[in-house]
Amino acid sequence: MFAITASHPSPDDPLAALVLGERPDPSPPAGWEVVEVRAAGLNHHDVWTLRGVGIAEERLPIVIGCDGAGVTADGREVIVHAVVADPDGGDETLASDFSILSERYDGTFAERVAVPSRNLIDKPASLSFAEAACLPVAYLTAYRMLFTRGDLRPGERVLIQGAGGGVSTALILLARAAGLHVTVTSRDEDKLARAEELGAHLAVGSGDRLPHKVDAVMESVGDATWKHSLRALRAGGRVVVVGATSGPNPPADLGRVFYRQLEVIGSTMGTKQELERLVAMLDATGVRPLIDDTYAMTDGRQAFERMIEGDLFGKLVLTPG
Ligand SMILES: NC(=O)c1ccc[n+]([C@@H]2O[C@H](COP(=O)([O-])OP(=O)(O)OC[C@H]3O[C@@H](n4cnc5c(N)ncnc54)[C@H](OP(=O)(O)O)[C@@H]3O)[C@@H](O)[C@H]2O)c1
To answer: Which domains does the chain have, with CATH numbers?
Structure first.
């Protein structure tokens, strides 16, 4: 089958590790099944894997791709929950054997992917395969950041750092649908205008002073925005961190953290139950994932180039064939 693989850790030139070509078909163990992939969302996670971040070298080469939607052998249309962990009745994202598809097991940038049967949820007819393929990483992560870890309530103010990314656009859409007051930052004037069209109440340049403090900040940029995130919070506010695209070690500014009684909260992916609730939320609100563009998997290199350059607004989706 055709697949997109990470061949070796390539920290400075991720595209050098990107291999498009034939791979053996998956052979699922007991309790797993094969999904014919109809669409797969691209995430910054896939770029990190090419760079060798978050993956042990001995796992490579591995088929990349965490997001996927498709059809099982018995014709069921499904969305794949990307968190692979032994079910113990608890929160899968906290399990000791937690991994995301493409970290330990082959991922979704392929014609077929093997996944545990328990990771499949029904795709509603109201969502296209491309829309469904955006949900398991960016949209699920945004859902958990806002409503579980961030515990945001309608009427509260939220700041989203970085307007254009997959997680950021998901945060804007879900936050607006939930009745939050949404402020967004970006380095790019065009993206600020597009964030406002998408529903942001206020869009400001990266690092610009806000006219008001916020109850919570959704942070995925890291070094470039951390100082601004802490300064934007009201006393007692919280910052929810899921990523560090621009670097993971900003000055902690501990004085501000204790004196203003701020909370720093980590968040990663989401549970299968949260994915089901996200799908129900989209059904109830009519919100649909924002897709920037769709590429054939054979043209996957172009999609990666755009993500690495930061030249996108919304999700990039790959389709087989
Ligand atoms: N923990 C988890 O479960 C989880 C899940 C999903 C994603 N993540 C992480 O979250 C991050 C975003 O993921 P994604 O897939 O949404 O990536 P993406 O689509 O590539 O988005 C990157 C975002 O970062 C912003 N940005 C990048 N460099 C910046 C800089 N120097 N200054 C200001 N803003 C900058 C961009 O904003 P503008 O271009 O608008 O300025 C854009 O919104 C990644 O680091 C990813 O690994 C973590």
So the answer is: 2-136+270-319 (3.90.180.10), 151-266 (3.40.50.720)
